[in-house]
């Protein structure tokens, strides 16, 4: 079958920018090599992050998790993790060093937090522990919200009941009153 351009289908050349079958076959080893190189680079980066976490204490997620629960006692009212990075504080680095030292000794997060509470009191925690009278602080907002919602619902019901009672107090006009109103309306129409 002949085409417009004068050549057969098999003798047609590939368009510029498109890859023919032979070119695609030649690119396959290159693509495979690039894929292997990319996967080894990502694996190497992951291994470097693991090694960095062992060397760099700031990369350890346990350090951040514990320090984010401890309030810095310099007066900034920030957690220890944030204070030592954003403020020029002399207190938070010593607290952070104590956390890292206890983690290196093998202590777990609850034990470290308990040591800080024993040393400095419950005020060292960013959130009060959920025990005893502290439950009031956790539950009071929800109780207040419930009481407020009940008060609003009660007011709406009271207002909706009061509205029909006001309408029932109206009386209908008698025949004499209707005749008087009609007479006055006719007189007004005549004056205009």
Describe the structure.
This protein has seven helices and no strands. It is mostly helical and 192 residues long. The protein has three domains: 23-55; 57-124, Helicase, Ruva Protein, domain 3, CATH 1.10.8; 130-163. It is elongated, with a radius of gyration of 41 Å. The protein starts with 20 loop residues before the first helix and ends with a helix. The relative contact order is 0.05.
Features:
192 residues; mainly alpha; Helicase, Ruva Protein, domain 3; 7 helices; 66% helix; 0% strand
Strand-residue proportion: under 5%
State the shape: elongated
- Classify the fold: give the CATH topology of the largest domain: Helicase, Ruva Protein, domain 3
Q: How many helices in DSSP terms?
A: 7
Percentage of residues assigned to helices = 55-70%
Strand tally, please?
0
Topology:
Blueprint: H1 21-55, H2 61-67, H3 80-86, H4 92-104, H5 109-120, H6 134-168, H7 175-191
Helix pairs in contact: 2-4, 3-4
Summarize the structure in short.
This protein is mainly α. Helix content is 66%, strand content 0%.
């Amino acid at each position: 079958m002949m085409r417009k351009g004068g050549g057969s289908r098999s003798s047609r050349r590939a368009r510029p920018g498109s890859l023919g079958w032979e070119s695609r076959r030649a690119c396959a080893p290159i693509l495979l090599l690039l894929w292997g190189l990319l996967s080894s680079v990502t694996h190497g980066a992951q291994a470097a992050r693991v090694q960095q976490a062992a060397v760099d204490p700031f990369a350890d997620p346990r350090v951040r998790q514990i320090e984010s629960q401890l309030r810095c006692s310099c007066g900034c009212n920030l957690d220890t993790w944030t204070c030592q990075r954003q403020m020029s504080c002399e207190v938070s680095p010593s607290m952070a060093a104590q956390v890292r030292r206890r983690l290196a000794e093998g202590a777990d997060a609850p034990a470290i937090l308990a040591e800080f509470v024993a040393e400095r009191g419950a005020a060292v925690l960013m959130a009060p522990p959920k025990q005893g009278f502290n439950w009031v602080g956790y539950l009071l907002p929800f109780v207040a919200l419930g009481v407020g919602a009940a008060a609003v619902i009660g007011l709406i019901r009271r207002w909706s009941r009061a509205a029909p009672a006001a309408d029932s107090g109206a009386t209908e006009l008698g025949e004499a009153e209707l005749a008087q109103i009609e007479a006055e309306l006719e007189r007004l129409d005549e004056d205009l």
